[in-house]
Amino acid sequence: MITANEIREKFLKFFEDKGHEIVSSSSLIPADDPTLLFTNAGMVQFKKTFLGQEKRAYVRATTSQKCLRVGGKHNDLENVGRTARHHTFFEMLGNFSFGDYFKKDAIRYAWEFITEELKLPKEKLYITIYSDDDEAKELWMSEAGVPEDKIFRLGEKDNFWSMGDTGPCGPCTEIHVDQGEHMTCGPDCGIGKCDCDRFLEIWNLVFMQFNQDEQGIRTPLPNPNIDTGMGLERIAAVCQGVYSNYDTDLFLEFINFTAALAGVTYKKDGEDVDTALRVIADHSRAIAFMISDGILPSNEGRGYVLRRLIRRAYRFGRLMGLSGCYIHKSVAKVVEVMGKQYPELCENAEFMDRVVIMEEEGFNKTLDKGLALLEDEILAVENTSAKTLKGETVFKLYDTYGFPIDIINDIAEKRGIAVDEDGFNAFMTQQKQRAKAAWKGAAGDTLAARFQSLLEEGVRSEFVGYSNLGVESRVA
Ligand code: ATP
Ligand code: MG
Ligand code: MG
Ligand code: MG
C-alpha cells in the first residue's frame, strides 16, 4: 500500500522533474492579506505573483500546502464528520505556472501523474469543465484520450474558482473518481446533480485568468496562469482503496489513539462513536497546526475559530465518556506523527500542550451545567409546533456556559430541533455594542490573559508563532 507520505513525495518529485521549484507550505495565517481569515488553498501564497505585483525567481512551482476551511467563502466545518471527504485542516498538493505553461500542459501533467505514476484506472475517471470551455474539452480528448461522454459541463458554482470574494479567479476543470455503484445516493445521483461521495472530486485545475474586485468586476490578469489543487487525504483514500479519507493512514492512527483512550472501537460501537472519533481526529490536526502557526484561543477572529474547534472536539469526547483533559493528548499525537513532515509542530509542542489543557479545563467547568440547561430547553420545545431553540436560550448557552453555536447545532439537529440563529445573532450584536460602550481597556477574557502570561513567561525558548500572532489574539 502506498502511504500518504509517499504520495506527497511522489507528487513533489514528479513536478520537480518537470521544472517546478519545490516551495514550502506557507502559514495558515495568510501573510498581509486582510481579505482572508485562513489559507484555504495552495495559491494563497502566490496571490501577488498571479496579480503581477511580485516577481519570483521561478515560473513553475509545486507545493504541499497546509489549508484550513473554517469560515469565509470556503467553510467545511459542518461537513466534517458527516461526509467522507471534508476536513477542517487538510493538505493540498499543487502545481503552479506563473505565465508559463497553460491549459494543455496542465491537463497533460495531471493525467500523467494520476494514470502513470499513481496508476488510477482510466475507466473510473470523469472530467468536468466550465460551461463554455470547449478548449479544455478538446484538450482532455486529444491529450488524455478521455471519451466525450465522460466530460461534463458545469456552471460557476462548481467550475469557476475564486479564493474569496475578491482576488485571482478563473474557470477550472476537475477530475473525479467513480467510487462504484454501491455508493450511489439515489436515482438522481451523478456528476453535478448530487453532492454524495460516489463521484469523488479529487483534483481541480484552475485557469487563473482574472482578478475580481469588490463590485464583482473581473479584469484579465497580466498573464494566464495555472493553479491546481488536489487534496492529499482524498487521493490517499483512492490509492489505498478505501471510501473515506478517515480510513487512510493519515487518520487511522489518530482515530485508534482516541478510541483506546475512550475504551471504544472504531466501526464497532455505533455511528455516534464513529462520528465523535472522526471529529476529534480532524479537529486535533487543525488545533495542532493552528497553534503552531501562532493562533491562540480567544473570543474573536481566528482565535475564536480555534476555541470552537477545541470545544467541539471536547464535547464529542465527553459523548464517549471521556473526562478530565484529553484533547491535548490527541493533539500531542498529531505532533508525534506529523512532526517529521512539519517540524514547526515539534518546536511548539510543549506550549501547545499547555494552551490546549488550559482551554479544556476552562470549558470543563461549564460543560455539564450547560448540557443540563440545553437538555431542559430541548425538552421544553420538543412538544411545541415550532420545535425551535430561541435565540435568547442559545445566547445564554454561549455567554454563560461558553457553548459555541456549532455544539448547539450538533445537539439540536440530532434531536430534530431547529436553532434560531438570527435571534442569536441579534443578541450577539447587542452584546458587542454593550461591551464597546463599557470598554475601559481591561482584558475581558481571563483565559486569554493567562495565555498572554504563558507567553511572557517564555514557556518555550522560541515560539515561532509569536511574530505571527493575529491582531485579535494580541489584543485579547
Ligand atoms: P468539494 O466540492 O468536495 O467541497 P471543492 O470544490 O470545494 O471540494 P476546491 O476548492 O476545488 O474544493 O479545492 C481543490 C481540492 O482540494 C479538491 O478537489 C479536494 O481534493 C480538496 N479539498 C477541498 N476541500 C476540502 C476539504 N474540506 N477537506 C479535504 N480536502 C478538500
Ligand atoms: Mg467545497
Ligand atoms: Mg467541488
Ligand atoms: Mg472544486
Automatic annotation (TrEMBL):
Residues included from the entire protein: 1 to 476 of 881
Entry keyword RNA-binding: yes
Gene: alaS
Keywords, in A-Z order: Aminoacyl-tRNA synthetase, ATP-binding, Cytoplasm, Ligase, Metal-binding, Nucleotide-binding, Protein biosynthesis, RNA-binding, tRNA-binding, Zinc
Domain notes: Consists of three domains; the N-terminal catalytic domain, the editing domain and the C-terminal C-Ala domain. The editing domain removes incorrectly charged amino acids, while the C-Ala domain, along with tRNA(Ala), serves as a bridge to cooperatively bring together the editing and aminoacylation centers thus stimulating deacylation of misacylated tRNAs.
Catalytic activity from the UniProt record: tRNA(Ala) + L-alanine + ATP = L-alanyl-tRNA(Ala) + AMP + diphosphate
Full protein name: Alanine--tRNA ligase
Broadest EC class assigned to this enzyme: ligase
One Gene Ontology term of the molecular function aspect: aminoacyl-tRNA deacylase activity
Family: Belongs to the class-II aminoacyl-tRNA synthetase family.
Subcellular location: Cytoplasm
GO cellular component, one term: cytosol
Catalytic activity, EC: 6.1.1.7
Main location (coarse class): cytoplasm
Positions of the Alanyl-transfer RNA synthetases family profile domain: 2-476
GO BP annotations, alphabetical order: alanyl-tRNA aminoacylation; negative regulation of DNA-templated transcription
Superkingdom of source: Bacteria
Known function: Catalyzes the attachment of alanine to tRNA(Ala) in a two-step reaction: alanine is first activated by ATP to form Ala-AMP and then transferred to the acceptor end of tRNA(Ala). Also edits incorrectly charged Ser-tRNA(Ala) and Gly-tRNA(Ala) via its editing domain.
Required co-factors: Zn(2+)
